[in-house]
Give the backbone structure.
Amino acid sequence: MNGIMMVVIALIVLGAGYLLYGRFLQNKWGIDPDAKTPAYEFEDGVDYVPADTNVVFGHQFASIAGAAPINGTISAALLFGWLPAMLWILLGGVFIGAVQDFVSMYASVKNKGRTIGYIIEEYIGKLGKKLFLLFCWLFCILVIAAFADIVAGTFNGFTTDAAGAVVQNTSNGAVATTSVLFILEAVALGFILHFGKLNKWANTAIAIAMLVVAVALGLALPICMAQNTWHIIIFAYVLVACVTPIWALLQPRDYLNSYLLIFMIIAAIAGVFVSNPSCNMPVFTGFASTGGNLFPILFVTIACGAVSGFHSLVSSGTASKQIKSEKAMLPVSYGAMLLESMLAILALVAVASFANGEAAAAGLTTQPQIFAGAIANFLTKIGLPYDLVFTLITLSVSAFALTSLDSVARIGRLSFQELFTDDENKNPSPVTKLLTNQYFATVLTLVLAYMLAKVGYAEIWPLFGSANQLLAVLALTACAVFLKKTKRQGAMLWVPMFFMMAVTFTALAQIIIKLAGQFVAGGLTLGTTMQLIFAVLLLILGVLVAIQGLQKLFGKKEQAAA
């Protein structure tokens, strides 16, 4: 097997999945091209903002991709070999991940653009909604912590050389400068998109020009600061982004970054076809590895490359409020997920191109560095400078993680506010007003995430992956109940739902046993103690919500009522 063959197989499988299975689901559930979408019905200029399909696609893809398909895929492949990783990415992406993304957006658009939490309240019950919102909030804290640490690592302007001396890393400094400029340009682009009323081609030209300027200045003026300093700056930025109107920062930033991210994928595919790298990784290393058994570790490690519960929060939390026409739901949701699966395949080709120990010998120690180094190696075959390509690819990976931070912080804040919001209570108490205040909810969420971020994303990743996949279980369960109660066919969600239940409950149980063992031995720090608390709460909440959903889906009383 070589790189070209792996990419061609992936393109065929993912393309066929979209054209055949995606359209099959759309026909089964039904869309109304003439329906007035929530973006128009509840337009408020903050969350409900109609946007062109390419803009919403950019927001959806940039938000869901993050660094997870790169980090997770490379980690899993190193543990179990390239074949199990490739099979799960393709099959999971087409039949589970993309299905979950599509049905979550579909259910939201059909329910006034409301989140999965409101879908649960409407079709399962208020208690289920409260439990789900608490689960979502805890999960969002994990995502913010993991992704903030990844971004800070890609910005870190100082590294240690082979002799142990601290040296400046100008590549990371260039990434940091460009990312800061992206944020400033995004605000300007937001005003252009919101007030300029230009056609999409003019908007595209402006976005690409801004992209080029930011990259050029970033390469010329690198900012070199320590990782701990970037932690503080990143959380300060997320604090602002979390409460800013969606059109002023989140939407244009994702739109701007989507061009960079798609360029990265095109460049990576071109690099594979130019160099046709050999697959130097073992096909399969066995059912057990240093990281644990293939089941469930493979499935929770790859995470977003095949299926991600976080996607359901984006599909129902932000993107569904921007959809102009129901026709856009399939490409924006199902299509964006399959593009993410393609990114995971490219990450697999990248890590497989290195022989055992070769990446570490070249100073490529983290997953983003391995990915960037491999793509840079591929593109040197056509004469492009290694350092330039390495910097641009690292910038793209950083952009993935930073755009996800924007979205997940907002979703976490909204989940916490919704947890204490009671529409029937017209005179909330001072405590309730405090808990539903957007600034209080944001600060509390980010403070807890900052404490976890100090542990490092590598330590958080297994818990993040398990919680992420359990969130997918809850989203699939809620949407299956929605489809049943609205007399639409939902049986295609059952197998993914039960399979992911087995994966996530097993993985969380293993994590709890491991952390509890450390606790008994007296080896828990503040960060690992928080992980143990989070793991126990997530498992309990997940089981309770799943039970409530399954009772609505298969209970005898529900069958009789139907």
About this structure: The mean pLDDT is 88.
